[in-house]
Each structure stands twice: as structure tokens, then as C-alpha cells.
UniProtKB/TrEMBL annotation:
EC number assigned by the record: 1.5.1.54
Catalytically driven reaction(s): (6S)-5-methyl-5,6,7,8-tetrahydrofolate + NAD(+) = (6R)-5,10-methylene-5,6,7,8-tetrahydrofolate + NADH + H(+)
Protein name (record): Methylenetetrahydrofolate reductase
Native species: candidate division WOR-1 bacterium RIFCSPLOWO2_12_FULL_45_9
Example of a GO cellular component annotation carried by this entry: cytosol
Cofactor: FAD
Signal peptide: none
Keyword flag Amino-acid biosynthesis: yes
Keyword annotations of the record: Amino-acid biosynthesis, FAD, Flavoprotein, Methionine biosynthesis, NAD, Oxidoreductase
Length: 293
């Protein structure tokens, strides 16, 4: 099933995002996590790959396994990183062979240490170029793109960032999934600006359950998300108490979920960090999804 078809049903979608494991032990753990989260009946799950595309082949293997062994609908991340047009086309054909209907098209991050992204020889420079390229090659595929409620770190302004997002939608994107955020006001402001800019596709908020103050700090530094002062104060006070941080994180995410759904979010997408327990605890407290069990 395509993500666009799930969104067309008119009930909020539920989705999870996994990242590539680095060892066989982590891989075995990931499959256990997927089996557990399957009981929450997600509409789809997405799978990332390494910043340099260096886990791409394994990612395709995991995607195939998720679809065939777990019966879940996968969304595959594709980027412009380290791949020319011919290689990207080969990847698309490979995904068609394993009957993947959903792709999240991203530019990708520059290699660590580089200040800016440089397109590879024969490659693509922007996510909008990737969307247009995939759309021409496979018109029937469902394409998602990323949006940043608090502006992409590389964008010169919020306005320019919205224009880049509009270009991705104009190129053929079916929906937008946002980067993580912890202040719903940022999402509502972002959604309003998108609407005023003429962006009409569904915008799905992306949420990351807080499980570690150290991890939270790292993630927010990478993506530019801000932490509300009251939340930051609570977390700093309890930074060395793992159970307290988990409790604060669950309460925070539950509040976010309920307000987002109450104000018309078409679904919720969770960056689960390859863990099942926090998200299970959160969704128990969100009636829209707890009733799915």
C-alpha cells in the first residue's frame, strides 16, 4: 500500500522510522523491535541508510525482509549522496523488483567535515531534482519529502526553506514528513506558512521520544530543533536518572501527540531509534492509536 493511499483513508496514520544496525547483534535486536512494534499496527515503516550511502545494499535487504517476513509496508530513503543518475536509476529498478511502492527522497547530508553538499559527477544537487528524476522514471511510485519546522540548518531564511520545500512538492512529492521537533508551536507555524505558500500535500509531524539527555542534545544539534526551556530544565535536573528521563520523555511526547491530532495532523511519524519500549508506552496513552491493539 502506498503512503498516499493510507493518508486518503481519512484516519490518522501511524509510522515508525528505523536506522541501519551496524552489527549482527544489532540487526537481531532490530528485528525483535520490528516484531514488537508490528503489534501496534503501523500503516508503514521507513528505513534510512548511512550518510554516505554505505549501507544501501543492506538497507534494501532489510526493506525486503520487513515487507516479506513482517508484512509491513516499507518506505525506503533515497538520497543524492555518492550516486550519479545511472546508479540512482539502478536503485529504483532494484526497488521495483522487490515491489517497493514508497520512497522518501532526500538530498542527504554532506560528508562529516565538509561545509556544503557537492553533487557527485553525473548526479543531482537537490532533493527536488531527485523527486523529479524518480517521478519521470516511475510515475506511479509514492514519493515523500522532508520538511523542517524550525528551518533547515543550511537555509538562509525560513522563507527560502519553504520555497525549496514548495519546489520539491511541485516536482512531484505526494506528502511531507517533518524533521523532529519538541515544541508544537513550531509545527503549527510551519504548517501555516506552507499553506500560505500554496503547499497542499499532507504534512506529517515527526516526533522523537526522549530516552537520553545526551542523545537529545546530539540530535537537536544536528537538525537545528530547539528544546522548550521548561522541558530542558526538567531534563537537565534529571540527566543522570535514566528512568526519570524516560518518564519525562513519555509525558512530553504524549502531550505533543494529542495536541497534534486534535489540531488536524494527518498522522504521526516516530523516530523510534530502534527501541520499542518508549513508543509502546507513549501509544498506550494516545486513544487514537491505543484502540488499534
Amino acid at each position: 500500500m502506498k503512503v498516499s493511499e493510507a493518508l486518503d483513508k481519512g484516519t490518522p496514520t501511524l509510522s515508525f522510522e528505523f536506522f541501519p544496525p551496524k552489527t549482527e547483534e544489532q540487526e537481531a535486536k532490530l528485528f525483535k523491535v520490528i516484531a514488537t512494534l508490528k503489534t501496534l499496527k503501523p500503516d508503514y515503516v521507513s528505513v534510512t541508510y548511512g550518510a554516505l550511502g554505505n549501507t544501501r545494499e543492506k538497507t534494501f535487504y532489510w526493506v525486503k525482509k520487513i515487507k516479506e517476513d513482517f508484512g509491513l509496508e516499507p518506505v525506503v530513503h533515497l538520497t543524492c549522496v555518492a550516486a550519479g543518475r545511472d546508479e540512482i536509476l539502478a536503485q529504483i529498478r532494484q526497488l521495483q523488483e522487490i515491489k517497493i511502492d514508497n520512497v522518501l527522497a532526500l538530498r542527504g547530508d554532506p560528508p562529516q567535515g565538509d561545509d556544503e553538499f557537492v553533487a557527485p559527477a553525473g548526479g543531482l544537487a537537490h532533493a527536488s531534482d531527485l523527486v523529479a528524476f524518480i517521478r519521470r522514471q516511475v510515475p506511479e511510485i509514492c514519493l515523500g519529502v522532508a520538511g523542517c519546522p524550525e528551518k533547515h540548518p543550511e537555509a538562509t531564511s525560513f522563507y527560502s526553506d519553504i520555497l525549496h520545500l514548495k519546489a520539491k512538492v511541485a516536482a512531484g512529492a505526494d506528502y511531507i514528513c517533518t524533521q523532529l521537533f519538541f515544541d508544537n508551536k513550531a509545527f503549527f507555524n510551519f504548517r501555516e506558512k506552507c499553506q500560505k505558500a500554496g503547499i497542499k500535500v499532507p504534512i506529517i509531524p515527526g516526533l522523537m521520544p526522549i530516552t537520553s539527555f545526551k542523545l537529545l542534545t546530539k540530535m537537536t544539534e544536528m537538525c537545528g530543533a530547539t528544546i522548550p526551556d521548561d522541558l530542558s530544565a526538567k531534563l537537565e535536573k534529571n540527566a543522570d536518572d535514566h528512568e526519570a528521563v524516560l518518564k519525562i520523555g513519555v509525558e512530553q511526547t504524549v502531550r505533543q501527540c494529542q495536541e497534534l491530532l486534535d489540531k488536524g495532523a494527518p498522522g504521526l511519524h516516530f523516530f523510534v531509534m530502534n527501541q520499542s519500549s518508549p513508543i509502546s508506552e507513549i501509544l498506550k496513552e494516545v486513544p487514537t492509536f491505543s484502540r488499534r491493539r
